[in-house]
Amino acid sequence: MADKLKAMTKRSACSLLSKGNKGVVLGVRATPVRWSTTSAPSSSCLVPAVQVPASYSYSPSYSPLRTTSSCGASSKRSALMMAKMKATGLSQQSFASCGTAWSSRAFVGTAHRAEAARWKGEGTGGSGLRRSLAGCGSARVVGCGSSPSTEVKTAAAGSSQETDGTAAGVLGGSEIRKRFIDFYVSRGHKHLPSSSLVPDDPTVLLTIAGMLQFKPIFLGQEKKKYDCCTTTQKCVRTNDIENVGVTARHHTFFEMLGNFSFGDYFKEGAIRHAWELCTKVFPLNPERIWISVYKDDDESYEIWEKSIGIPKERIVRLGEKDNFWSSGPTGPCGPCTELYYDFSPELGAEGADLEDDDRFIEFYNLVFMQYNRTPDKELEPLKVKCVDTGMGLERMAQILQGKPNNYETDLIYPLMEKACASAGVEYHKLDERMKQACKVIGDHTRAVVYLISDGVTPSNIGRGYIVRRLLRRVVLKGRLLGAEKGKLFTPEIAEIAVGMSNDCDPEVAKNSQRILSEIAREEERFVKTLDRGEAILSDLLEKASTDKSKSLKGADAFMLYDTYGFPLEITQELAAEKGIDVDLEGFERAMEDARTLSRSAHEAVDMTLNDYEGTLAKTLPSTEFCGYTDLDAESEVLSVIKDKEQVSSSQEGEKIKLVLDRTPFYAESGGQVGDRGVLVSDNCKVNVVDVQKVAGGLLYLHEGIVEEGSLAVGDRVSAQVDKKFRDGCKIHHTSTHLLQTALKSVLGDDVCQAGSIVKPDTLRFDFNYPEAMTGAQIKEVERLVNSWVAGNNETVVDEMPIAEAKAKGATAMFGEKYGDVVRVVSVMSEQGESVSMELCGGTHVERTQEIRGLKVVSESGIASGIRRIEAVAGDQVIDYLGAADDIVKSLSSQLKIKREEIVPRISTLMNDLKASQGMVSKLKEELAVAKTAALAGKVVSINGFKAVFESIDDMDSKVLSAAAQQLQSSLGEDAAVVLVTKVSDKKVSLVAAFGADLLERKMHAGKFVSSVAEVCGGKGGGRPNLAQAGGTDPSKIEEAVRYAETQFKELSQ
Q1: Residue 733 labeled ligand binder
Q2: Which GO molecular-function terms appear in the entry (predicted)?
Q3: pTM of the entire structure?
Q4: Any binding-site annotation on 602?
Q5: 316 in Cβ contact with 354 (< 8 Å)
Q6: Which whole-number Å values give the CA distances from 304 to 184, 298, 359, 600, 915, in the listed order?
Q7: Domain that holds residue 580
């Protein structure tokens, strides 16, 4: 009988585990079941007295346990189980001896001291009960163990939560993150910070994986600084954006916890670490963990089975698609093993499918890079084997917090809860569609906040487009949820994300004002776009209503979705109200085209090996840079590269790249361009035109042309930097530091660098600011910089730990990577105060008077919220002012006035010109009216309407419109006028003017002229009574006129 009950509990049992002073309490999860508690028993076994049909009796020696409500999620299955129990007539003894069934869904049975001790030893404690309850409805458990007054609160998905967003005793996201990092640090790993979401890698648009910052090490292009390390990496992926909120685990923004080994431990060490972390530190029930391995990876299989003790039935061999990692046709690759959590172990191992997302979740992936795939598809063993792992923080939170999906964990749920509060709704009362909207809001807001913090601003291209698209989806989902129109919705959600960001990225909080301001501005812009989109949709639906198909084109529906943010379902609803279908197949085709482009840009990290850089990194010592103090040095040629191949020598006229053992040449970094100069010896002269860093900055690659003689590996050369070039770079680089300080002083501390270029003759500085600077602000910035220049302040260079530098307030340069020890460049006043302090590896003047002066040449916007200043310093200021003075002298001479009179005189001339142009335009209109008056004799009668369809020579579009309107008015309200003119060799202008009688027939001038313009290769539109269009093919003008007449005959019937 006990076996029968065990079989039933496999289908409908749920474990509720809590460590008490006396043992382990287990209870039944079922809607009709209630538990009560009085006092803790003193027996060796705790058995909950469960209220089932009256025919059952239980031993009075066992203390019952009560919850204030039932779990409910599996009520149907549990009720069925109860009926089966009654039908079988189970006795008290058989019920009490049914054994233990571990499950997250339901449970009936006993827990003996030995079992309790085993779980206690693995650190499960009371969190297991609370996790189980948290996943199956709200409950209040009272009286566990010998403390009946102790109350443990558990939070159901969507219910009110404690300050950390989780139930008492349940691991919050911050604690999961901390335990992971602490575990690996305690095992000798270096904890490194998350890299920026804007990667230093041209093969990807955003940081999409935890291993991305280590790619140069895996490729052998950079020497490792540590044998092993651990990170929590912020990532953004947008290739499956439509699945966000729909599935339980798809995200755009997520955190990837990772541990990495660069030739230290390999499979045995990685697997043991992973197992200990998962079963001891978090901990997970070992019997719920399944393993997948690559089909041919016998080594990993044996480690899991023999060393760890995983039963064979829970180790699954999978093919290359699932368990062999590679990214790119060549380069490092290898098998991987993955850990899965089983939500329904009661279903058994037979027929289990790890692809069953309802039952399993993959939460930890261990990649073993042990091969290099050659262009011939051969797998060569790597000399240095590496480990790359990834654990999804959100997935682990779902498991440990007992939630049905990642969104309802404490990592995302607070944002969803705020969205609901703003919309005046309660999450747990929403239908599935509205819950999906909440999930999108929570997910996308996180992505937007971190992207903007890392310097990405909304725009229509690249990364900026991703921010814009995500933010618009948040606004739309907020409207769907019921957010109040006319009130900003996104900033208050983003504020929650900022408040939760510190453990992931402390910089987010520092950038909070900039983030929230940018989000508010973008929402305001989008609301205006939405209004325009609604008008466009209205026009499209009206046009579709006149078509025989009564269908809105799929491409138009996608345009509304992609450009104006209209979800397809909203377009369908509005179309259905007018009896119009939407071409779903066409929409899907357009969507798939967009997806293809998105995937090609964002889905994979290109790990294709650049052979010569990898070889250089492995075989050559680091380049010694002596350029801070010397502009020439005696050096040895260590390597010569021609056409991406290492060669032993080069000849006159050849373009080459070479590596020296030591160099005074500055390699491009921090915005400063690489030095120019020459390499000379008795046998050759090489003109150096650029210098770049490779191998993670350890090697300097000099690019140049052999102008004389020949150069070979092993030659000694004199490396000589162009002093004038270097001095110009130094002047403009220090000026850039002073400029940033001045901008912060004038515009506010939220100003931060978004890019820069330092050249010997100019500087360019990009920074975040929402509007154009005023003339007064630019003057004040110039005044501040030049006052510091005149003060002859000293430039001081120090090296210190990065934590100390940041504590002193040093500013980091945009897009730069820093080590543990950094170079700090400060401009110090005579009073010992810091005018400017930045982390910088560039070259600088010793004293600010070397700069001589700075002049802002231009200030402009380059993207939404991003401004650009171009400026000159040093000798270039004199050149610039001299050129400006020449212009002033020339104007003064030509106008025969004093220089102070130039501006008012030019204003007067511009006003006179404007008046003259107005007169000319009026005369043209009068001439056009006179020409069109002659067309009155060409009126034709069509279906009871008067109509004119003609072409007119040499008339601009504005005049053409006035002429058509005048002629239509003179002919009456039953008249239509369509005129076409050639504006230039590649430009055609068309206009249509319709009287009121035609409008009553539902004829629309905008739609009509747009269709006619297509004949000339153009398009257009406008109001129902008057509209214009343009074309590109004047040779089709007469054809367009004939087409207009034919169309009018059809539409006016």
Answers
A1: yes
A2: alanine-tRNA ligase activity; aminoacyl-tRNA deacylase activity; ATP binding; tRNA binding; zinc ion binding
A3: 0.62
A4: no
A5: yes
A6: 20, 10, 21, 36, 87
A7: 547-598
